[in-house]
């Protein structure tokens, strides 16, 4: 059961290496039989076409029924998490992932799902928060809760000590002139703060630090100021609140403000975080991960991110297929049937493509410590008898009905694996020769 594995804002890794490796091995055997690479490539294209047809015919689509489609997402999530750290709590985290993805309402923008890691407790203490959580602190003396928030998102310097920042050198003949320079800098910062407040915001979130003077000004005016929201955080906030990140404040009429129902400080374990509830982008949510150590949390985040990515792909292309090596054997048998009626050497290339596909369930069985030859032959016999939904049951070391066992995969992911691996193998096959540098002579 191969599953795409996705850290936040990373693309999911597609497991094309194994099919590519087996196709290469089969190609080498065919070339040794003096079959031209063009003939092999032509046979592979026919095999890929037959495999795609078999894969499409085996797929099912329950997107018209919300309850059935949610169950499909849960099955895919459980299958994805079965080989990872979260396998013992896969039912719980599958529900978390499915609920979070369904809130996106088809937008497929994972930036709207924030994963927050907080050490402490155990993995079962993790939960889905309907809102956006920001792991930052509110300025001293500022309001801890604001309703109907108007949020100004900025990436600007809020430091008055420009001389120190730019490494300038100023010569003065008295301390009074130093005080005048400092007062001029403070006056400019006050002017900048007034421009920010003139936007009509009651929450100001800056990517950079906010120093003592501007923080005290915001406190006096009752504005909640949040500093040092990193680049990913500020961009994600812009996406979920509907605002835009600004650096200058001369034209308030051109600035899009972020909006949410409430901004408040809440406790998670022993830490304080800022919760943005009722964001303009209603699909925004946060998954709070709890765990005994940072290593457990990192691995849990990677596992959960894999599930989130494959589920968003399934929402976009709702068809699903059976896992457990079922579709590989199904595609291999469809190719073998077509190869029997295909004349010429292309049929040999098609048979080699089918053998490469059958290697995948064999590798899965070997990884589980089972007799792969026995299981794969049983699986082929079951498919020949018309049991098209049978695959490998890795818990019992036998074959079983994947529909009853709830082992499912995304149709889109499997199709990408099939196309990417076969096209890459064909591209390598077209290489005429490899030029290598001569090895360096060993001295002495």
Tally of separate helices = 14
User: Pairing-aware structural class of the strands and helices?
Assistant: alpha/beta
Radius of gyration: 29 Å
SSE sequence, one letter per element: HHHHEEEEHHEHEHEEEEHEHHHEEHEH
Low-confidence stretches: 1-16
Tally of strands: 14
* Large-scale geometry: elongated
Profile the largest sheet: 7 strands, mixed
Q: For the record, give the distance between the C-alpha atoms at the N and C termini, rounded to a whole number.
A: 52 Å
Which strand-content bin applies to the residues? Answer: 15-25%
In helices, the fraction of residues equals: 40-55%
pLDDT averaged over residues = 85
How would you describe this structure to a colleague?
This protein is α/β, with parallel strands linked by helices and 444 residues long. It contains 14 helices and 14 strands. It is elongated and about 95 Å long. The two termini are 52 Å apart. The model is unreliable at 1-16 (pLDDT under 50).
Describe the structure using short key phrases.
444 residues; seven-stranded mixed beta sheet; elongated
